[in-house]
Specification:
12 helices; alpha/beta; 299 residues; Rossmann fold; single chain
């Protein structure tokens, strides 16, 4: 397990960005780049991350970044990989696509699926703030049940899409979940993915103060509640083997999970959530952890 002494001191983002106060994505991106190192090329679609990078002609990162339209992140990464292979640099430089949930679960899923089916050698990281935050908080396929957005004013009526399971079904060598409130776990997973050949997918919960409705100082607390309630388990699937990550191991015992209400009532987006939706959350969490236990026992 990575500890604070293992984190490299090098920084790959210049001080001062245009991100919101308390943005978990900015923290996620900072530590992911530390784990990946200087020999990295990034591609990013329209998203909050393009806001972090800055206006045209400027970029806050010290690494090369290709900005691409919403739908083409996987295709852009594939093109970069092909170019590096042609130049004999594919083993030396890591290609990473970094996209939000809208650009992953919805608009970008076709290009991502194609790249995964081809086994393209790159990392695809989705920072999931559970809505189209950069354009006014509209619902995405990753918006959770009961959440208020500009396009679901009465609360979303469907649960979020299970994107890690969809990518796992592609038979790629590495799929992982992460959480911006567990930086050491996230750092370790990016380091591991960097050294695996083929398509790697990391899906990261990214708490968002303005979109979720909480005080920016509580970002780490809110993110941790998602995992502590059992809603967002942390795990890896490496060559088909399911591995429960250390921060989530104690949650195999249901008595160690916090009530889902603690997570929901801490956010204004759930202020009108119905009791039936809360009951559905509890049923979902129970079923999710029963499936995790089954996978661990049958390996």
């Amino acid at each position: 397990m990575v500890n604070v002494l293992d984190i490299v001191e090098d920084e790959y983002i210049h001080p001062g960005t245009r991100m919101c106060a308390g943005c978990a994505m900015a923290l996620i991106y900072r530590f992911a780049l530390k784990a990946l190192g200087p020999k990295t090329i990034l591609t990013v679609p329209a998203s909050c991350l393009t806001v972090l990078h800055g206006m045209q002609g400027f970029c806050t990162t010290k690494l090369s970044v290709l900005h691409t339209p919403f739908a083409t992140t996987g295709a852009a990464a594939s093109g970069i990989v092909s170019s590096l292979e042609e130049k004999g640099l594919a083993d030396e430089i890591c290609v990473v696509a970094f996209a939000g949930d809208g650009g992953t679960t919805d608009i970008g899923i076709q290009a991502l699926s194609g790249a995964a089916e081809r086994g393209t050698n790159f990392i695809y990281a989705c920072y999931d703030n559970e809505a189209y935050m950069n354009t006014g908080v509209q619902r995405s396929g990753s918006t959770p049940l009961g959440a208020f957005t500009a396009t679901t004013p009465g609360g979303k009526t469907r649960p979020k899409k299970n994107m890690p399971k969809i990518l796992e079904a592609h038979g790629i060598p590495y799929v992982a979940t992460a959480n911006g409130s567990y930086i050491f776990d996230l750092y370790e997973k990016f380091q591991k993915a960097r050294d695996i050949k083929g398509t790697k997918y990391i899906h990261i919960l990214s708490a968002c103060p303005p979109g979720w409705g909480y005080d920016p100082k509580d970002t780490i607390k809110i993110g941790r509640l998602a995992t502590e309630t059992g809603f967002w388990p942390l795990y890896e699937v490496f060559n088909g083997k399911f591995i429960l990550s250390k921060p989530s191991k104690k949650h195999l015992d249901a008595s160690n999970r916090k009530p889902i209400e603690e997570y929901l009532i801490a956010q204004k987006r759930f202020k009108d959530i119905k009791q039936q939706d809360i009951d559905n959350y509890n049923s979902f969490i129970e079923a999710q952890w029963n499936e995790i236990k089954r996978r661990l026992e049958n390996q």
